[in-house]
DNA sequence: ATTTGATAATTTTGTTTAAATAGTCAGTTT
DNA sequence: AAACTGACTATTTAAACAAAATTATCAAAT
């Protein structure tokens, strides 16, 4: 037996899925509420029954993706053989995430630095999760005596994430865009793994 | 005795200096050619006798600054005690350069990704100089046996510069600006030195 | 409680106009 | 001839407005 609330959640999910597909293929600004509604054979008004506005719909999709991403990260980092492997897992998972959802982030390219605060919060949440999981990984390795004691693992992970981010950024600077071109993603990934190698070695005895 | 060409060069220099002061205090877009001419008690038309247009004037100033920056770097990297010191010198010199000329780069904030190609060339030139000088430093330390042999020093330096750049970038992301706020420069500098520490250690035996 | 058609409100896009500023040039001064 | 200028033109920027597209609302229907 399915309650009314269940039904509502199912419909919400259906809308999220349809919206995700539209955003993924056409980007935020070239997706209209009419089209999303059309895909589901619903009236546009109903979308507003389930979501306050278009940006909130986009954000809801993004939140879902972020949740899946973090879940994925948690699963992979549950066990690992050494620190490098743990960090490499993060780099890989992020890479796959970006590749898969590349066009979804069209919103970022268009809206650039004026992203709504909520989106920055989601990004911050992702980063916080990465920070927690990776610094936990450092602690584990530290306790095993594989690396020398680290006074502040969070600071180290934060720095590493910044550094990895730099590899992404310099791949786009002096281009007209802020978000990397799809063709550069592989190159970025390779450089990141190299950086990781050196950085990890720098943490060793 | 001063030739006509000397005189022309002197006047060119005077214009560059006046333009630099205006750009430094008011930024590119809030500086008019009339004002620069006024500062020198010259007609605006004369500026166009010496420089083809406003952007070329700005670029000429920038080129001069870049030359001084690179010269500075060469002097400092002529001798050093260890690799960390050499890299730290680069970070420090760049830091001081940005702090000193902070407002001059207003053009970057405004124009963002649509900077004229020539400016990207100057930036590339600076980066090339950094690359050459720092990879030479690596070679020196390698020959002294202070670090383990490096197959491709340029690649390593390139990566490090990207990573250091990431520290700058993350200090501005989710802010409305692309160029860091002046208040963040010290924080960026500190984080960079920390990153440098780890990175260098990663290159050691 | 869920859904919609019709309608209102807002955002985006394009156009016009005026003001500010960049850029030119014929002619003057050194 | 090289250095320079006043007066002019051309371009860019900003503001104001209108039309079109799209978002968002709501009273009524299921």
UniProtKB/TrEMBL annotation, chains A, B:
Residues 32-51 bind DNA. It comes from the Bacteria. Residues 9-69 form the HTH tetR-type domain. This is HTH tetR-type domain-containing protein. Keywords: DNA-binding. Coiled coil: none annotated. PROSITE patterns: HTH_TETR_1, HTH_TETR_2. It holds the Pfam family TetR_N. Transmembrane segments: none annotated. The lineage of its organism: Bacteria, Pseudomonadati, Bacteroidota, Sphingobacteriia, Sphingobacteriales. It comes from Mucilaginibacter panaciglaebae. Gene3D superfamilies: Homeodomain-like, Tetracycline Repressor, domain 2. InterPro entries: DNA-bd_HTH_TetR-type_CS, Homeodomain-like_sf, HTH-type_Tx_Regulator, HTH_TetR, Tet_transcr_reg_TetR-rel_C_sf.
